[in-house]
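# step 3/5: fold
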Amino acid sequence: MVVVRRRSGARTAPSYTQADVEALSAAHNEPRWLRESRLMAWEIYEDLPMPTLKDEEWRRTDYRSIRWDEAEKLIDANGASVDAVPAANLEPLVGEGEGGSMVFVDGKLVRYEFAPALAEQGIIFKDLRTAAAEHEDLVRDHLMTRAVKTTDGKFAALHGALWTHGVFLYVPRGKAAELPFHVVMYNTKPGASLGHVLVVVDDVAQATMQVEYASAPAETHSAYIGATELLVGESGNLTYVALQDWNRETYEFSHQRARIGRDANLDWIVGVMGSRLTKAYLELELDGLGANGRMSGFFFADKNQMFDLDTQQNHNAPLTKSDLLYKGAAKENARTLWQGMIKALPKMQKIDGYQACRNMLLADTARMDAIPGLVIEADDVRCSHAATFGTLEEEPVFYLMSRGIPRPEAELMVIEGFFDELLDRIPFERVKERLQAAVEAKIVG
C-alpha cells in the first residue's frame, strides 16, 4: 500500500477564475457564441464541488497528490516546433499516406496536412478553433451538446470553459474517407492542457482516425483535462484509436463519449500506458435501432501509476449490440481499476451486451480491481459480463523453455501473447509494432 503524504497547505483544486476564461477567449478572438459557451460552462464549474473519496465514482481513486500550483498553469506554446515530437509519433499510419494529419505541440498547431481529394468531397478536417469560426453551424450544433456535456462533472465543466486546442472532423452524408486521419498532441513543458476531439460522421459515411497523446519527461506535475466526442449517424462507420503515453508526472482527467445511430458501427480502441494517474470516463450510447459498438482497451501500469477506467455501454434502442474487451497488466506498486456497466432501458428488447476485463498481476505488490455491472430494465435481452485475474502461468513458460528459450524471453513472449488479441485490432501495422515495443519495455523495466 502506498501512503501519500500531502504537503501542508497544498491546494485541493485549481485556482482558475472567470477572468482566465475571458482572457483565453479574447486572446484568440473567438466568436461570441463560443465565448458565451465557455462562460456558461464556467458557471457550472463554479457550482459543482471537486470530487472526493465520498463520491461513489471516485471512492477508490485519490487524486489529491496532484500539486495544483504546478499543474494548473496553462502551457505556454512559445517556441513550439514539430521537431520536438518523437519521430515514431510522426510516422504515417499507412504506406500510401494519410487523409490528413495534425500535430499540436504545447497546444499549438505546428503541422497540418489535408488531402485535397477529401476536401473536394466536403470533408472538413481542421483545428477546432478555426472550425468554430469558419463552420459555426456545424461546430455549434455538436460541440458539447450531444456527447460530452459540461454538466457531466467538475472536470467536464472546467474543460468546457478552458479547452485550449482541439480537432474537428466532419464527414458529410454518403462520403467515405478512404485514408486515415492522424492527430498528435505532444507537450514539451509541464502545466495544464485541455485538448478536445470532435468527430462527426454523418449518415452512410465512413472514417478512420488515430489520436496520440504524449509528453516529454518532466519533474513537476502536469494536468490533462480532456474531452472526446464521437458522433456516428445512421449507417455510418467509424474506427477510432486513442493512444495515451503521458510522462509520469501527468494527471489525466477525461470524459469520452460516443453516440451511435441506427444501423451504424463504431470500433473504438484505447491504449493507456503513461501518466501518474488517469481517471477516464468512456461511454458508448447506442441510440439507433441496430447500432453496433465495439470497445477495446489495453493498459499496462508499473511503478506508482494509477489507472481508473470507467466504461459504460448504454443500450438506448432495441436490437443494439455492444462488445467490450479490456486487458491490463500491473507490476511493482502500480494500481489499476476498471469499472464497467451495461444499461438497457425499458422496452429495449433484443439487445446483446457483453463486457469482459482480463487482468494479469506481475507483482505481489501491485493491485488490480475490476467491477463489472448490469442494469437491465427489459426482459428479452442477452447480456453478460466477466472479470478475470491471474499471474504469469508457469505452464506456457515451461513449455517455451523446453524448446530452448531462456526464461526471461519465455516470460516476455507469454505476456506479449496476452495483449496480442487487442493489439491485433489496431488497423495500422507500424503502430502495432510500436506498441508491442512499448509493452516489452514495460516488461523488462
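# step 4/5: annotate
The first helix runs from residue 18 to 27.
# step 5/5: archive (pending)
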